[in-house]
Design goal:
CATH architecture of the largest domain: 3-Layer(aba) Sandwich
CATH topology of the largest domain: Rossmann fold
Radius of gyration: 25 Å
Shape: globular
Largest sheet: 8 strands, mixed
Distance between the termini: 30 Å
Number of strands: 22
Bound molecules: cytidine-5'-monophosphate
Oligomer: single chain
CATH superfamily of the largest domain: CoaB-like
Strand order of the largest sheet: 13-12-9-14-17-18-20-21
Number of helices: 14
C-alpha cells in the first residue's frame, strides 16, 4: 500500500474518534491520507488531531480561497486512489443518494472518480429506518462499497446495528481495495488456525496456548492476494480477516470434517495447533467434584494435515507447521516426510515466546532445503509465505 493515497471524509458521529486510529494505521503503512472534516465531524474531533495524525492540511470549506486555487474540491479525489467516509452518517448517505452537493463532503462525493467506501455509524433506529434502507440500496446500486456497521452497544445507550466498524476492519477493507497485485486470483485456499478444544465434560476441555494469530494472518494475506479463502478456526478471540469464509470448530474431529468440506483447494496451510489427544469419552454431564479424583484415558486425534496431504483430492501445495523445542530443522524435515506435505514452516517454541506474540522467527523447509527467515511480524510472515506460494503454484500442474 506504500505510496497509495486515500481521501478520508470524517462525518459527524461519535465514532469519529475511531477514525483517528484508522489514520494512524494507514500512515504506518505508507498511505497518504488527505482529510475532509464536515461541520458535524468537527463537533467530535478537532482539525488539529486530523492534521497532526495525517501530516496534511485538513479541508473544511468548499470555497476556501487558499486551497481552491491549488487543490480544488474536484482535485481531492483525482489525486487519491480511494475515497473513504468514516463515520458515514445517515445525513451524508441521504445527500449522496439524492446527488446533493451543497457542502465540501457531498460535492466531493458527487464529483469523485474513484471507488467510495462508507463506514456507516448511527443510532439503530436511524439505520433501520426505511429512508436509510432505501438510501443504502440506492448507494449499493450506484457501486458504493460498505464496511459495517456492526451490531452492539451504541454510544446513545441503545443496542443494535449502527456501530461503526472497528478501525482494523475498515483498514482491511481499504487494503483490499488498494492492493492491485493479486497473484492468487481464481485460486482456492484452505487454512487451519488456533487451538482445538477436546471435551472432558460439557464445561471442561483440554486445550493449548495457540492464539491463532499466525493462521489468521496467513488467511488475510491469501485473501488479499485474490484467493478464495476458507479459514477453519478453533476457538480464538480474533476478528475474522476481511474477505475470507470463516468456519468455526471446537474439536480436532470437527476441524477435519470442515477441512474435507472445503476441498478441493489449490493450496492448504495447516497452522492450527491441533490437540494430539482427546479424552476417550467425554462425560454427558458435568463431573462432580465430590468423590474420587476422576481419571480418564486419552486417545489419538486424527492428523488433519496428514489426512489431507495423503488423501484425495490433494491440494496442489500443502504446507504444515512444526513447533519444536529442540533440533528444529531435523525434526521439521522428518515431519515433512512423515506427513507427506510439501513444505513445513518450522519455529522454535523452546522459550514459549511465540504463543500470542505478534512476531516470529521461522524456517521454511521445502524440497530445496531450509531457508531461515529473519524475525518478522506474523503479518509479514503471512505475506511472504503467500508470495512464495504464488510462485510455487505457477510451476505445479492444476
Ligand atoms: O505432529 P505435529 O502436531 O507436530 O504436526 C504439526 C503440523 O501438523 C501442523 O501443521 C498442524 O496443524 C498439523 N496437525 C494436524 N492434525 C493433528 C496434529 C497436527 O493437522 N492432529
Amino acid at each position: 500500500m506504500n505510496g497509495k493515497s486515500v481521501l478520508l471524509i470524517v462525518g459527524g458521529g461519535i465514532a469519529a474518534y475511531k477514525t483517528l486510529d484508522l489514520i494512524r494505521r494507514l500512515k504506518e503503512r505508507g498511505v497518504t491520507v488527505r482529510t475532509v472534516l464536515t461541520d458535524g465531524g468537527a463537533h467530535f474531533v478537532t482539525e488539529l488531531s486530523l492534521a497532526a495524525l495525517s501530516g496534511e492540511p485538513v479541508h473544511r470549506d468548499m470555497f476556501a480561497t487558499d486551497t481552491e486555487g491549488r487543490i480544488g474540491h474536484i482535485q481531492l479525489s483525482r489525486v487519491s486512489d480511494l475515497v473513504v467516509v468514516a463515520p458515514a452518517t445517515a445525513d451524508l448517505m441521504a445527500k449522496m443518494a439524492a446527488g446533493l452537493a451543497g457542502d465540501l463532503a457531498s460535492a466531493l462525493l458527487l464529483a469523485a472518480d474513484k471507488k467510495v467506501l462508507l463506514a456507516p455509524s448511527m443510532n439503530v433506529k436511524m439505520w433501520n429506518h426505511p429512508a436509510t434502507k432505501r438510501n443504502v440500496e440506492t448507494l449499493k446500486r450506484d457501486g458504493i462499497l460498505f464496511v459495517g456497521p456492526a451490531a452492539g452497544d451504541l454510544a446513545c445507550g441503545e443496542t443494535g446495528s449502527g456501530r461503526m466498524a472497528e478501525p482494523a476492519e475498515i483498514f482491511a477493507a481499504i487494503e483490499a481495495q488498494l492492493i492491485e497485485h493479486r497473484p492468487l486470483a481464481g485460486m482456492k485456499a484452505l487454512v487451519t488456525a488456533g487451538p482445538t478444544h477436546e471435551a472432558i465434560d460439557p464445561v471442561r476441555y483440554i486445550a493449548n496456548r495457540s492464539s491463532g494469530k499466525q493462521g489468521y494472518a496467513i488467511a488475510a494475506a491469501l485473501a488479499l492476494a485474490g484467493a478464495e479463502t476458507v479459514l477453519v478456526s478453533g476457538p480464538t478471540d480474533l476478528a475474522p480477516p476481511y474477505g475470507i469464509k470463516l468456519v468455526k470448530v471446537n474439536s480436532a474431529r470437527e476441524m477435519l470434517a470442515a477441512c474435507r468440506a472445503a476441498l478441493p483447494a489449490d493450496v492448504a496451510i495447516f497452522a492450527a495447533a491441533v490437540a494430539d489427544w482427546r479424552p476417550e469419552t467425554a462425560a454427558d454431564a458435568k463431573i462432580k467434584k465430590a468423590g474420587a479424583v476422576p481419571s480418564f484415558r486419552l486417545t489419538e486425534n486424527p492428523d488433519i494435515l496428514a489426512a489431507v496431504a495423503q488423501g484425495t483430492p490433494r491440494p496442489r501445495l500443502t504446507v504444515g507447521f512444526a513447533a519444536e523445542t529442540e533440533n528444529l530443522d531435523a525434526n521439521a524435515a522428518a515431519k515433512r516426510t512423515r506427513k507427506g506435505c510439501d513444505w513445513i514452516v518450522a519455529n522454535d517454541v523452546s522459550d514459549g515466546a511465540v504463543f500470542g506474540n505478534d512476531s516470529n522467527r521461522v524456517h521454511l523447509l521445502t524440497e530445496h532445503g531450509v531457508e531461515q527467515w529473519p524475525e518478522l511480524s506474523k503479518r509479514e510472515i503471512g505475506e511472504r509465505l503467500v508470495l512464495r506460494i504464488a510462485d510455487a503454484l505457477k510451476g505445479i500442474e492444476a
